[in-house]
Write a structure and sequence with these properties.
The complex is a heterotrimer of chains A (155), B (42) and C (233). Chain A contains three helices and six strands. Chain A has helices at residues 2-28, 41-47, 141-147; strands at 56-62, 68-69, 75-81, 86-92, 104-111, 117-125. In chain A, strands 1-3-4-6-5 form a five-stranded mixed β-barrel. In chain A, β5 and β6 form a beta hairpin. Chain B has one domain (10-42). Chain B is 74% helix and 0% strand. Chain B has one helix at 10-40. The relative contact order of chain B is 0.08. Chain C is mostly helical and 233 residues long. Chain C has helices at residues 2-29, 43-70, 73-104, 113-134, 138-152, 155-165, 181-219. Chain C has a domain at 39-182. Helix content of chain C is 75%, strand content 0%. Classes of the chains: A alpha+beta (155), B mainly alpha (42), C mainly alpha (233). At the A-C interface, α1 and β6 of A face α2, α3, α5 and α6 of C.
């Protein structure tokens, strides 16, 4: 029985070590660089020709004043910006009601050679703020970028 | 908002709350049934 | 024994009552969110389910370590209870999240890091329960359940921190500063409510597991090992 007890306790220690090791690796191992959920407009521009043809996600803010809904009711043009670079997007999809100027979006699609990003999957990324209609607070782009975590580059 | 947008309203809220209530009730019911079953086998 | 169960049941009933009060505040008293509108009210069940599911899994982890250390079957029963209740909340969380996502993000699902790790969390702990059901010997079952629980737990802090470490579609944690004060109350009420309900359900599930173990040992007395306590408490 004491043999059995020892074996169990050894198992406890080994399991805890494995769990702790995996956690530490995930936290400090820097796998963030390989885990890029979306590219920012700047990164997409920097990628240049490598961005063409591949299916990628582009994330940023909808540039104020850039939304242009086509008459057919299905196509929509707008620009995604990160404050530095801006990428024009052609979206053939139904956006959620949250879609508006200055909101965060992640679009999935491909960069075309004419410089447009074409997408059929548009996702609105909102921040962690939940406000009642009356507690109005003016928004500035810098703050928005921060609250949406579009600025961090992966730790 | 005009047509051509996904509008979320009360129906989504009701669906989420209903699923939560049904889920919790179903789990509670399954626990009761399993406890009863094991008592009956004695 | 009757008194003890009654005590936990009181807790559970209190939780149910609180859930009704909290949801009333969430559905009818709290304001609609300025951009999201009514659909933001899903938060008052979604966020508490997420918190308490993670509390359940954390409890399961602690119970597993204790059980592996001292070998007492009651900790195996508690581990099982905490995992099962955690998994129920985890499943509800994914469904609520999907409904909320469709209305605000525009999609039912995406392989974003928060969503993926949350789904993986459910699959891992469902896997622990499945593994458990394949082991006939109660000592081995307890040992392997505990080891698997400790390993599966790795994903739980990941679910919490992933939105801070990596880019995601899901927003980062809100704080009382980023949530309107009128929305904080129903959120807290429902979190306490679901915690109480979870404790109640875990106690019931653990009781069921102890009864099963007792029956197993009555059916096969040869398997009863010296030092194995069968307690009703």
């Amino acid at each position: 029985m004491s043999q059995e007890r020892k074996r169990r306790r050894l198992l406890a220690v080994v399991a805890l070590l494995i769990a702790g090791g995996v956690m530490a690796y995930l936290a400090f191992g820097g796998i963030g660089e390989n885990l890029v959920y979306y590219w920012s407009p700047t990164e997409l521009r920097e990628a240049g020709p490598r961005a063409f043809g591949a299916s990628v996600r582009l994330g940023g803010l909808v540039e104020p004043g850039s939304i242009d809904r086509q008459a057919d009711g299905l196509t929509m043009r707008f620009a995604v910006t990160d404050g530095e670079a801006s990428v024009p997007v052609v979206a053939e999809t139904v956006p959620p009601a949250m879609f508006r100027e200055g909101i965060g979006v992640v679009v999935e699609g491909t960069m075309l050679r004419d410089g447009h990003f074409q997408t059929q999957r548009l996702m609105v990324k909102h921040d962690n703020q939940y406000r009642a209609p009356e507690d109005f607070k003016p928004e500035d782009m810098k703050e928005l970028m921060k609250s949406l975590q579009f600025e961090e580059t992966g730790t | 908002m005009p047509d051509g947008t996904i509008v979320g309203g009360w129906s989504y809220v009701i669906a989420a709350y209903a699923i939560t209530a049904v889920g919790l009730a179903a789990y509670f019911w399954s626990l009761r049934r399993r406890l009863k079953q094991i008592h009956n086998e004695d | 024994m009757t008194r003890r169960i009654f005590g936990v049941r009181t807790l559970g009933l209190l939780g149910l009552g609180l859930l009704l009060v909290g949801s009333y505040f969430g559905l009818f008293v709290a304001p609609a969110e300025r951009y999201m509108g009514q659909v933001q009210r899903i938060m008052y069940v979604h966020v508490p389910c997420a918190w308490i599911a993670m509390v359940c899994y954390t409890a399961a982890f602690v119970f597993a370590v204790i059980g592996l250390w001292n070998g007492k079957p009651r900790w195996d029963a508690r581990t099982t209870g905490a995992i099962e209740v955690g998994a129920v909340l985890n499943a509800l969380l994914l469904v609520q999240g999907s409904i909320w996502a469709r209305a605000t993000w525009g999609v039912w699902w995406d392989w974003d890091v928060r969503l993926t790790t949350s789904l993986v969390m459910l699959l891992l702990f469902a896997g622990v329960l499945a593994l458990r059901s394949f082991v006939d010997d109660s000592d081995r079952r307890a040992t392997w359940t505990a080891v698997a629980t400790i390993v599966a737990f790795v994903d739980v802090p990941l679910v919490y921190f992933c939105v801070r470490w990596w880019r995601s579609l899901h927003q980062t944690q809100s704080t009382p500063e980023t949530v309107s004060p009128a929305m904080v109350l129903p959120l807290r009420l429902n979190a306490i409510a679901i915690l109480l309900i979870a404790i109640w359900l875990i106690a019931q599930r653990a009781k069921l597991e102890r009864e099963r173990l007792r029956k197993e040992q009555v059916d096969e007395p040869a398997r009863v090992t010296a030092g194995l306590e069968v307690t009703d408490a």
